[in-house]
Design brief:
Strand content: 15-25%
Strand order of the largest sheet: 13-12-11-16-15-14
Helix content: 25-40%
Structural class: alpha+beta
Largest sheet: 6 strands, antiparallel
Number of helices: 22
Oligomer: single chain
């Protein structure tokens, strides 16, 4: 089947449009587009390539022995097809090329796609070899998908070949043909060939281990030819032993021995090790290098247990020597051991725990742990000699891989435990840097977009996106690196920008050769290189399909450059951290939303009133927003209402409920209800909210009913200097007298809001001018570690100070009682009382005689003249006349007129009737009914409030902007 993708739709001119900067996302495969972007960042010109050549390129014999049979079989299967088989090294430089007709080979030679030439992506652009190496995965590219013009007549399919033990990319296998002969099946063929090569590499490792074991067996023969195998505990191979019994080694002890043996294999300068086991026993491990007949080098570990009961042994069959093994072998002294290495987790190449047959005649253990074993040494034969057995055999390189694999697993485990302990974006980034340094890298830098730090949705990131350095882990202070808090920008050629744009990790094992990296800031980059930084990995922070930032890992003091396994580990570390950072970001967004909602529902400043001087504080809880609120509400008659409440719980539901209750209190205050009546109405409202406000609640919805709410409501009258309190399950208020004496007002207890069925009671208290009322929520005095009585005493101590301003009182209370971040939210309201003196109040007791109306007009005019409010005389005289006339005509009991000069001019007429006047619009032919209409038009506000003896009708008029200075003449109380 001939595939002509490059002749379909927008792909025909996609390459040209991409080079002009146009978007081609919908026309080009994602992997091809990312390759194009990398080529553009590398500065490639599609019409002009400079391909370097080397004539001394080769792969090691071990790899060629594994690859040659597979490649020859693959070339033979393609003998009837004009297709070449290409083998390149781990840097995409071509080593061999098989097959293909003369025409194809000539055309490939013309474009320098031949042995000795470089086929890496940064040199020749998108192609099967270079892009497969860059992507670290199989890659298929056809025709116009190539970045370079000269490669567009071809189709390629390439795949990396990895070492099955280390995971390193040792070579790249590629199939190339003309575009017309291309087929997607090429990708399947190259994958199968790669699996074949990797399988043969695995077999080679197994054969080497078998040769080492055979060499060890031959080395342990004594001079008489007697086989002298170390003894082996029978229980050592029980798969189900977990504890030792009567001296037997359990599974845990054996696992510890195996782990230490692997580390000893990987330690070139250590000859033995001691391991503490259960039961007070000590195991000594001896490292013995061994060399096979064919030159294979390896290490065997022998074990000996001292202390505790002796081990029991059984005879086991020794493994057979591989066919064709040489007849001689040598052992090396422990002092001449070379490098250490790690264990492979692949069963076929795992370092083997050897099961030899015991021989009672010749022990293999030296008399001194530091001495080398002496084959053929004489020992006792009655079983009372040393207990020693062969524990492990393996190659140093495999031992190194085992140790590295274990360290990487430990690092990943620690990352899972230590990253994401909080829901703070910055702290989570710092935890990532702390985990990575120094165990994985010498420097770890976390750069995030600013919206992520604020909890907002991240914007699309790419080259040029400004980031902010949030965390920097370092083994030492390096001034050449950007510091925490610095704004960081990356040019398109840098590995960080490529990671941000492509969403893929970038490995730069030799940083000095990464030209694009140093182009970002040549001066700073030069200083970094001069400081010894030599290797770099950049990984994009991606969560839920969105890029949050980028993480850069640098190595300086660690001499080994980053490799493929390190890249995988870095991706896993950053992947875990990205989820935690995104969770923290989402929490920050939700928290900020809830906090903004709550702040919008709380008072925004101080209301205009003269009754009290107020100060307040609100502190959100450590766990998030809560339902605490406070309020200062001006009432009629120059009075003021002080409110503090607490909705049980935290979160948006508590904040929203708090807003509803606060609004309800405002509405009830507009009715001038007494404190106990207001709480009764509020209690009924909370009960209805709990029940869903009368609407049927769907069973599918979670129950968000209010568990409870408390409230303290107080009304202070500056004329009488009296304060009336009522509470619903709320802590007692405190009163600070002018002399500094502190008392908690003994209020009648009331049930929390929402329970219903219980009346609320009030208490009245006379306050001296300058007294302070302190209202608060329970978070101020109560927590899990402190009883409420202790909190009240601490509050009393903090308040005991005379002549202190409310603002200072708030600061003193919070400093004395609260930690930096309280567990519960806290609302605190402090109000210092003022009084309206006799010079601001005028009051007349009036008989129920219509003739008194004329006299009261004259008295009001004189009083306003004394206050310098002549501008209000006419309207006030009319208002007073109308209200007094209505009280005399329609009400009962004594009638009283009172004028208050506060922020406004207040006129009040009280009587003994409980009937409220009603405002209505009089018809043209009506003779009456216009009095209240005139009052409403002439005043700023008016209303009715009820008392225990009747009602009061009140009005408010704004004062003139520049009133005359009030007269100091005594009041004239007579009309």
């Amino acid at each position: 089947m001939t595939v002509a993708w490059d002749q379909i739709g927008g792909l025909v001119d996609a390459h040209e449009r991409f080079l002009t900067g146009a978007r081609v996302d919908s026309d080009v495969r994602g992997s091809v587009l990312e390759s194009w972007k990398r080529c553009r960042s590398a500065g490639l010109e599609p019409h002009q390539l400079l391909v370097p050549y080397r004539s001394d390129l080769e792969l090691d014999d071990r790899f060629l022995r594994a690859a040659d049979p597979v490649l020859k079989d693959l070339a033979a299967s393609l003998v009837d097809v004009s297709m070449t088989v290409v083998l390149c090294d781990g840097r995409a430089r071509m080593i061999q090329r098989y097959g293909g007709d003369r025409t194809l080979r000539q055309r490939l030679d013309d474009i320098r796609f031949a042995p000795g030439f470089d086929a890496s992506e940064q040199v020749v652009g998108t192609n099967g070899v270079g892009t497969a190496l860059a992507e670290r995965s199989p890659f298929y590219v056809v025709g116009r998908e190539h970045f370079a013009d000269c490669l567009q007549p071809f189709t390629c399919a390439g795949a990396p070949v990895r070492n099955p033990l280390s995971g390193h990319v040792e070579a790249v296998l590629d199939l190339t043909c003309l575009r017309a002969d291309g087929d997607p099946a090429m990708l399947r063929m190259v994958r199968e060939a790669v699996r074949g090569i990797e399988g043969r590499l695995l077999e080679q490792a197994t054969q080497r281990e078998q040769a080492l074991l055979a060499a060890y067996r031959r080395a342990e023969r004594d001079t008489s030819g007697t086989r002298a195998w170390p003894q082996q505990p029978a229980h050592a191979f029980s798969e189900h032993r977990t504890t030792h019994d009567d001296g037997d080694l359990g599974r845990i002890d054996l696992a510890v021995l195996r782990e230490k043996a692997e580390e000893l294999i990987a330690a070139p300068h250590r000859a033995f090790d001691e391991v503490a086991l259960s039961g007070g026993r000590i195991a000594t491990l001896l490292r013995r290098p061994v060399i096979g007949a064919a030159g294979e080098t390896g290490v065997v570990i022998e074990a000996r247990v001292l202390g505790g009961p002796r081990l029991r042994h059984v005879e086991l069959t020794a493994p057979e020597v591989p066919a064709g093994a040489a007849a001689t072998a040598t052992t090396a002294s422990p002092a001449r051991t070379a490098t250490t290495t790690v264990l492979s987790v692949t069963p076929a190449v795992d370092m083997h725990t050897v099961v030899p047959s015991p021989s009672p005649s010749v022990p293999l253990w030296p008399k001194s742990p530091a001495a080398s074993p002496t084959p053929g040494a004489a020992t006792d034969t009655d079983g009372s000699g040393d207990d020693a057995w062969l524990l492990l055999v393996g190659e140093p390189s495999v031992g190194r891989l085992a140790v590295l694999a274990r360290k990487r697993l430990e690092l990943l485990y620690d990352a899972g435990v230590r990253i994401g302990t909080t829901l703070d974006v910055t702290r989570t980034a710092e935890e990532l840097a702390d985990v990575a340094v120094p165990r994985f890298a010498d420097f770890a830098a976390v750069d995030l977009a600013d919206p992520v730090l604020h909890g907002e949705e991240p914007v699309p990131t790419g080259a040029g996106t400004p980031l902010r350095r949030v965390a920097l882990g370092a083994v030492y202070a390096e001034p050449a690196l950007y510091g925490v808090g610095d704004r960081v920008g990356y040019v398109p050629s840098t590995p960080q920008a490529r990671s941000l744009e492509s969403g893929q990790s970038v490995l730069e094992p030799v940083l000095a050769e990464a030209r694009g990296w140093i182009a970002n800031d040549p001066g700073r980059g030069g200083r970094v290189l001069a400081a010894g930084v030599h290797s770099l990995i950049t990984v994009p922070l991606r969560a839920r399909g969105v890029t949050l930032g980028v993480v850069s890992f640098y190595r300086c003091r660690q001499p080994a450059p980053f490799e493929e396994d390190d890249l995988s580990l870095a991706q896993e570390l950053v992947g875990r951290a990205a989820i935690c950072i995104d969770n923290a970001r989402r929490y920050t967004r939700e928290h900020n939303t809830a906090l903004a909602l709550q702040r919008s529902l709380l008072p925004r400043g101080r209301p205009e009133q003269n009754a009290v001087e107020v100060a307040y504080r609100y502190l959100p809880a450590r766990a998030g927003v809560g339902g605490d609120w406070f309020d200062v509400i001006p009432l009629s008659g120059a009075r003021v209402a002080l409110v503090v409440g607490d909705v049980v719980g935290h979160g948006l539901h508590a904040a929203a409920t708090m807003g509803r209750l606060r609004t309800a209190v405002h509405n009830f205050c507009s009715l001038d209800l007494a404190p106990d009546e207001l709480l009764t109405h509020l209690d009924d409202l909370v009960g209805r909210l709990d029940r869903g406000e009368g609407w049927a609640v769907e069973n599918t919805q979670p129950d968000t009913g209010i568990i409870g709410a408390t409230c303290l409501y107080a009304v202070y009258d500056p004329v009488l200097r009296r304060c009336t309190f009522a509470r619903a399950g709320h802590p007692l208020p405190a009163v600070v007298r002018p002399d500094g004496t502190v008392d908690f007002v003994d209020l009648p207890p009331g049930p929390p809001l929402g329970l219903g069925g219980m009346p609320f009671e009030t208490a009245e208290l006379e306050l001296a001018e300058g007294s302070q009322l302190v209202l608060y929520t329970d978070g101020l005095i109560e927590d899990r570690l402190q009883d409420i009585d202790v909190g009240l005493e601490r509050l009393r101590t903090a308040l005991a100070c005379a002549e202190r301003a409310p603002e200072d009182t708030c600061e003193a209370v919070l400093d004395a009682l609260l930690p930096a971040r309280p567990a519960d939210d806290v609302a605190l309201l402090v109000a210092r009382t003022r009084a309206l003196g006799p010079q601001q109040v005028a009051q007349w007791e009036l008989p129920s005689d219509p003739a008194v109306v004329a006299r009261i007009r004259a008295a009001v005019t004189r009083r306003l003249a004394a206050w310098g409010l002549d501008e209000l005389a006419f309207t006030t005289e009319l208002i007073a006349s109308e209200l007094v006339t209505n009280a005399i005509r329609h009400a009962t009991g004594p009638v009283q007129l009172r004028l208050l000069r506060d922020r406004t001019l207040i006129c009040e007429v009280s009587d003994g009737s409980g009937t409220a006047p009603r405002l209505r619009r009089a018809r043209t032919e009506d003779e009456g009914g216009r009095g209240l209409f005139l009052v409403a038009r002439l005043t700023e506000r008016w209303g009715t409030r009820y008392t225990s003896t009747g009602k009061i009708i009140w009005t408010e008029q704004p004062l003139p902007r520049s009133p005359s200075v009030a007269s100091a003449d005594p009041l004239d109380p007579t009309p």
